[in-house]
Amino acid sequence: LMRKLLVLLVALVTVAAFAAVNFSGNIRVYPQLTYDASAASFSWAINTRVRLFLSASDEDETTGFAVSLVRQGSSAGEYVQVLNDQVFDTTLMLGAGTYVWKKLYPGETFNITARLGYMWRGIAKYAANTYFWNPYFEVSNQTNAVALDFAMKSGDLSDTLSLYVFAPTATSVDLDLYNKLTFTFVELELFLYDALSGFGSSEINAGVGLKLDAAKALNIENASLNAFAGLNVGGDPTDLNNFLKDYIVGVNLGYGTINGSVAYAKGNTLELAVKTTALPPLTIGADIVFTDLTDAVNNMWLAAYANWKDGLLSHSIYMTYGTDTKKATIGWAISASF
Question: Residue 135, preceding bond cis, omega within 30 degrees?
Fold first, then answer.
């Protein structure tokens, strides 16, 4: 009894030390059956994925921390995780959102925050209403780093500049800069990565992201229309053939119970998707991706799915087929968020 009381006392004292503690995450289990037409064979697996997020701050909300953990495995064998170039024979992986922080200059319209830990930074763009998330645009870095965030807000205008100092090797230092500007219906992102090494070799490594709420800009009611774009350039700017590394453009739109997306990216990749909630409680959708439009028939992915909720659980029955891989998959994903 005394041991239980001591554990309870320690827990109460620990919680009392924080003004705010947030614990969230999700679990996803998805058994699936795959048929490989090229080999005339079946295979199956039960996959599991877990994400855990924990963050806390003190009473003044001037210091705190965040922790992110990920686990993934399947009945066919566990994955070996690689973290910071070291191989760990475990399925528990530190997520790139694990750090401690302190507000150096707290304020409502302007503040400065210092962070130290394992952090992701960059730009990610993809169509919102799709199954495959292909094309998926990302330009990013994730390392241990020291970061300074400068945040400003005035009316509808907000701007955040983040500087990341990190060590690519034990004897070198580099710098990433990320800036996000938001104003009414426009969101603009700029990411300069490996800035010091790039400056020393006269190279530019940069990503640009744009999001435009066209429905808000045009005062369109009862509908959504959002355009997005991403651009990644790097290397010698005089070598135009190799300077443009990646790009994506697309639009997400919706009206009533119907939502759709269109996205096009480098590599001649095109994605078309549609989903509807016209048959509650089901959400029904379909997705088609041409991974290379120059030979669309032999480079096509197809998907159809139906989603619904059951108490704490979310269900998704899906079917996919790839003309390039000649593989068809039927699966049932069960997930829960907390």
Answer: yes
Which pLDDT score is estimated for 2? 45
The pLDDT, as a whole number, for residue 240 is 74
Q: Is the peptide bond before 281 cis (omega within 30 degrees of 0)?
A: yes
* Residue 6: exposure state from Cβ atoms within 10 A (0-12, 13-18, ≥19): exposed
Cα(first)–Cα(last) distance of the chain, in Å? 31
Query: Among 95, 151, 83, 84, which residue's Cα sits nearest to residue 119?
Result: 95
What are residue 218's phi and psi, to 5 degrees? -95, 5
Q: Is the pLDDT of residue 85 over 80?
A: no
Q: What are the helix (H) ranges across 129-276?
A: 195-200, 214-217, 240-243
Which two three-digit tokens encode residue 302?
A: 């197809």
H-only helix segments in 84-179 = none
Match 């990433």 to its residue by tokens. 176
HSE toward the beta carbon, residue 100, CA cutoff 13 A = 2
Q: What is the pLDDT of residues 293-302, one digit of tens each?
A: 999 999 999 9
Tell me the C-alpha distance between 139 and 143, whole Å: 14
How many residues are listed for the chain in this entry?
338
